[in-house]
Design a protein that fits this description.
Bound molecules: zinc ion
Order of helices and strands: EHEHHHHEHEHEEHEHEHHHHH
Distance between the termini: 38 Å
Structural class: alpha/beta
Radius of gyration: 19 Å
Number of helices: 14
Strand content: 5-15%
Largest sheet: 8 strands, parallel
Helix content: 25-40%
């Protein structure tokens, strides 16, 4: 079955504000790269619909949904709303599309779940807002589209699904939403000692979660060790009906918000390893604050899902699109050439530290 690509043009010119890490484009970079590579015919593209209030209310509180709508309308929130719902606070700014953008992400992931109800693969790079809470914003996430997608699968009668999260930050919102729910196993690989400071190796959320906190500087070899020793056997043993992968790109070496050292070979390997493990697969985006490495990573995932041969050098249109991006960070002032000319990174292999072995053992024994 041909994979579908679910996305929206709303991401193209949307920004959380000039000083915010989400000032940069990501989803549009991925889409443009895929189009320039000839990988995205109209027949596989599906426009993400905006979720209705009733759909959002499957997880979110109606008062919070109304507050988000009002924040977009007014472009301002009261001190009370800021305090209650964390809108306009803690990295969750009031911006132009503060309701529509997350509601379209949610609608996209729910559409992805419906498209795969009988089987299949969907890439939905605008999804992945894994920190969102039922009644408040958290960690740049206003709504929790992974939770809404997983609930859509459950509402279609599925009762054995796996949520795998390889974002640099712990997938706390999804883990907590399915705390002690035996239908959903949530697995998170993330940088330890980083916000939100949850997801220790001993944390199993009532027996339905596994957590693998990685040390600073985690390389491709260490990541592959955790995947092969622990994560893939856990998933295979469960024989899930569906897998949702949150493929945040902030664990890549060049990301400004985390200190892990993966190349995008790690993301490619995860996708290749989980594709045979379930008849349904939905891949989401997530974090990723370097527009070059994030866009390339998510385009690489689309190529991997389709088993397209990878070019050694990007075609001229793809390169021109990347060169036209603005990235207002130190690394953006003197960007390395491979950000413009390649899709696949050079692997970042290295020794497997004892800390990684010990953490994996602890996570498996809890
Ligand atoms: Zn993240």
């Amino acid at each position: 079955m041909t994979p579908f690509y679910v996305s929206s043009e709303i991401y193209r010119n949307s920004s959380y504000g000039p000083k915010h890490p989400l000032a940069v484009p990501r989803v549009s970079v991925c889409t443009d790269l895929c189009r320039a590579l000839g990988w995205l015919p109209d027949t596989v593209y599906r426009d993400a619909p905006m979720a209705t209030d009733a759909e959002l209310a499957r997880f979110h509180h109606l008062g919070y949904i109304a507050a988000l709508r009002q924040a977009e309308r007014d472009q301002h929130v009261s001190a009370d709303v800021r305090e209650t719902y964390r809108i306009g606070a803690e990295g969750n700014p009031v911006y132009r599309e503060v309701f529509r953008r997350p509601a379209i992400s949610a609608g996209g992931v729910m559409l992805a779940a419906r498209l795969t109800a009988e089987g299949g693969i969907v890439h939905c790079p605008g999804g992945g807002t894994h920190h969102g809470r039922a009644d408040r914003a958290a960690g740049f996430c206003f709504l929790n589209d992974p939770v809404l997608g997983l609930l859509t699968w459950l509402d279609h009668g599925l009762d054995n699904v796996v949520y795998l999260d390889i974002d640099a930050h712990h997938g706390d919102g999804v883990q907590d939403a399915f705390h002690a729910d035996p239908r959903v196993l949530t697995i998170s690989l993330h940088e330890g000692n980083r916000w939100p400071f949850t997801g220790a190796a001993a944390d199993t959320a009532g027996g339905t979660a596994r957590n693998f906190p990685l040390p600073t500087g985690c390389n491709d070899s260490e990541f592959a060790y955790v995947m092969q020793t622990a994560v893939l056997p856990l998933i295979a043993a469960r024989r899930p009906q569906a897998i949702m992968l949150q493929a945040g790109a902030d664990a890549l070496e060049e990301d400004p918000l985390a200190k892990l050292s993966l190349s995008n070979n790690a993301h490619r390997a995860v996708v290749q390893a989980i594709m045979p493990l379930a008849p349904r697969l939905v891949v989401l985006g997530g974090g990723g604050y370097n527009p070059f490495t994030t866009g390339r990573c998510w385009a690489l995932i689309w190529g991997t899902l389709n088993d397209f041969p990878l070019p050694d050098r990007l075609p001229p249109d793809a390169e021109a699109g990347l060169r036209a991006l603005h990235y207002n960070r130190a690394a953006g002032r003197n960007p390395p050439d491979h950000w413009f000319t390649t899709l696949l990174d050079t692997p970042r292999e290295g020794p497997i530290r004892d800390a990684v072995r010990h953490m994996t053992k602890e996570a498996l024994s809890t």
